[in-house]
Amino acid sequence: RANRMFHPEDSIVDVCGVKVGGKQITVMAGPCSVETREQIIGVAEDVKQMGAAILRGGAFKPRTSPYSFQGLQETGLDLLKEAKAVTGLPIITEIMSADKIERFVEDVDVIQVGARNMQNFELLKELGKTDKPILLKRGLSATIEEWLMSAEYIMAGGNDNVILCERGIRTFENYTRNTLDLSAIPAVKKLSHLPVVVDPSHAAGMWWMVEPLAKAAVAVGADGLIIEVHNDPEHALCDGAQSLKPERFGRLMQDLKIIAGAV
Ligand code: PEP
Ligand code: MN
């Protein structure tokens, strides 16, 4: 079902009227994690004004260490809902287990499957029974074929609203947090009709590299971006080092228009 052979035209996923795929570049932005009401609503207002179409914010966080901030969980979902009510921006947030699907279907506009859960097949099957847009991140060490097969798991259940997300992969290189696989974008576009967005933040791991990678992603044909933006990156509870301040995000949005117009 994800294969372009059986579906030659590009798919467009509709998120509360915001289109992902097709002609325009759709930008999702917001903090790695929802921290406080002031933080999420403040960042939501900023990124909306700068042209983001969807608000991101983690409530359930897949942290490497069990002693790191695990997210505000249910409270985080409540705060995202408030930010949506204030700004009108649809919201995307990560799910980690199938027992939360009901709540996510109720309150969230795009359900994110993180890199670490790309091959959680039972979760993918359950998400396939919903009709929610799903953003499927590429696994840390997943091949393009494995990634597309995971999309297939969701689609096999009847949910065709899948958005792929390239967020960098594990390689021998350790200067960057991950290695952004830019060639995956044209590859996936050839193999599949699904929209693909790029996450330059988790690929780079460093805020100053987000801008060039975001531009490159648009230049190679990505349908959108998901970018971490924080009002106070120095004190962020998660991924501050790779988060843009709102002003810098705003400048990037202006530059992206020029590149999007040229491709
Ligand atoms: C995130 O988006 O905050 C995240 C945890 O991403 P990934 O699953 O790509 O590591
Ligand atoms: Mn993050």
Could you walk me through the main structural features you see in this protein, from its secondary elements to its overall organization?
With 263 residues, the protein is an alpha/beta fold. It has one domain: Alpha-Beta Barrel (TIM Barrel), CATH 3.20.20.70. The protein has nine helices and ten strands. The protein has an eight-stranded parallel β-barrel with strand order 3-4-5-6-7-8-9-10, surrounded by six helices. Helix 1 packs parallel to helix 2 (74-87) and helix 4 (121-128) crosses helix 5. The longest helix is centred in the last third of the chain and has 17 residues, at 246-262. The radius of gyration is 17 Å and the shape is globular. The two termini are 28 Å apart. The structure holds phosphoenolpyruvate and manganese (II) ion (MN). Manganese (II) ion is lined by residues 32, 202, 228, 238-239.
Supply database-style keywords:
263 residues, alpha/beta, TIM Barrel, eight-stranded parallel β-barrel, two-stranded antiparallel sheet, 10 strands, 37% helix, 15% strand, globular, binds phosphoenolpyruvate, binds manganese (II) ion
